Every structure is written in C-alpha cells, then in structure tokens.
Amino acid sequence: MTHRNVSRIAVFASGSGSNAENIVNYFRQEDSRAEVALIVCNRAEAGVIARAERLGVECVVIPRPEWAEADTVIQLLADRGIDYIVLAGFLLMVPPALTARYAGRMLNIHPSLLPRYGGKGMYGRKVHEAVVAAGETVTGITIHRVTERYDEGAPVFQATVEVSPADTPETVEAKIHALEKQHFPRVIAETFLGKQ
Length: 196
Known about the structure:
Largest sheet: 7 strands, mixed
Mean pLDDT: 94
Strand order of the largest sheet: 3-2-1-4-5-6-7
Distance between the termini: 26 Å
Radius of gyration: 16 Å
Low-confidence stretches: none
C-alpha cells in the first residue's frame, strides 16, 4: 500500500456552497497537506453543485431517502479514500453509522455561539432572526465535532462579533459569513492536521 501525504476531505453541503468553495481554495492556496476531494450534496437544485463543477471538484448528489441507511454514503467515502468530513451548511442529520465511522474526524460550523440557538431546525437565517429578536449584543460562530445529536458535539473553536441595536437578520448574517470565511478553513486544518 502506498502512503498518501495529502489528506482527503469530503465537504457535505445543502446550499449555495460559499463555505465549500472557501475551503477548497484554502487547501489549494494556503495548506497543501489536504485537499477537498469530494463534495456531497442532498439537494439536486443546490447551488453548490455548479460551484463544485466550476472548481473542478467531484460532486455527488445523494437524495434524502438514501441518507437514512448510510450505506451508500459510507461506500462512496470509502471508494474515494476520504479521511475527514466537513459539514458546511449541510441541513440533514448525519446518520449514526457515519458519525461512528468518522468519530473525531467530522466537523460542523454553526452560525451562533452554541449552545445558544442550536438544535433541530436552527440554521441559517432562522438563527440570525432569533438572535436579533432576543436583543443579543454578541453572536458568532461555533466549529464543533459532529455526534449523533444536533449541535451537541464538543466545540473546537468559537469567534464572536458584536450585534448592534440597528442590526437586522441580514446584517448579522453578513457578519457571520465574514467570520466563517476568516476562520473555518484554518480551524479545519489545525483540528485535523495540526498547526503548520
């Protein structure tokens, strides 16, 4: 068996794929110890599919019913030699068989300071609406390990940003996207591969 020096990452995404693209570019330009070898999506209409094509990264769409069994996904990852999984705006629950197989090797990013505003149904704009409605003065991102329960894996990194009284869910979302872009790829690299 030949030893690979480059770790292979699969990114799971359900939406436009802006985080996925940021991660792909980071490992192409900043850290050659890993590469995004695969993007897995659960929605045939998701923007991440066209983004992956433009980036030249293989993208596989696995419809929602096939996630329940996990066999299809596990086989796909095994076939591609995937070492790590990153959830970047992925809105399905990861099946327990997959979290068990990749225990300690799977990260998610959540657009709030967990445990606040986490759990089932709390994603994207819904989180920012809740933060603004509650009159929070600070919010942020949490990068955490993935377990079989929504947003309950151990945090590995948090970053904060101020919320002003004038902020709307849209402006908070823009601040969060900036934090994600700034920190997510670097934290993935440090968590999985260690400091450069």
